Amino acid sequence: MADPVGGIAQEVRSAGRWSMVAGVILVIAGILAIGVPWIPALVATLWVGWALVFGGVAEAISGFGSAEGRGWKLVLGLLYLATGLYILFRPGPGLAALALLLGTFLLIEGIVLGFIALQWRPMTGWGWWLVDAIITLVLAFLILEGWPSNSAVMLGLFVGASMLVSGINRLVLGTSLRSAVPRAV
């Protein structure tokens, strides 16, 4: 009869190993993205362009198959498709638009987080909300202050930093999983 505890321990250690592999890949990709930020910015822009193209096709198909709101669905499908194609054929302006959208979103988010922090002020942990608000507002300022000239750099740095932090997170998780379960004898 197989040892169920040993099997579970082996699965946990294997999951930890794969988490560490993913972590190393993400850390390397994050460092490369930070070193050459225009590449991930361009990839992100093209990704959004293709997503809009496929979304437009799906919306148009939905419009043809629907009796209610057919015209509006077709208009939305064409809007998605046109926007996606514009981004694909003119990624520079598409990248600038994405940076402006992200900067505006972060500005609004930072303001809302600040209000939440002030409303929760007497509660334990309200300061973390305030720190989150301040960091978010700084990021918004970094994007919007140099827009559109710094669009590629800022988006690329954000993608790279996100991958780097995710990679470190997976390395820590993998290490924790592997050290929490003793090696099989």
Describe this structure in words.
With 185 residues, this protein is an all-alpha fold. It has helices at 4-35, 38-64, 70-89, 91-119, 126-145, 151-180.
Gist of the model:
The chain is mostly helical and 185 residues long. Helix content is 85%, strand content 0%.
Q: How would you sum up the global shape?
A: extended
Structural class: mainly alpha
Strand content bin: under 5%
Low-confidence stretches: none
The arrangement of helices and strands along the chain is: HHHHHH
Could you say how many structural domains there are in total?
Answer: 1
Assembly form of the protein: single chain
Query: For the residues shown, what is the average pLDDT?
Result: 89
- Rounded to the nearest angstrom, the distance between the terminal CA atoms is 17 Å
List the SSEs and their pairings:
Elements: H1 4-35, H2 38-64, H3 70-89, H4 91-119, H5 126-145, H6 151-180
Helix pairs in contact: 1-6, 2-3, 2-4, 2-6, 3-4, 4-5, 4-6
Characteristics:
mainly alpha; extended
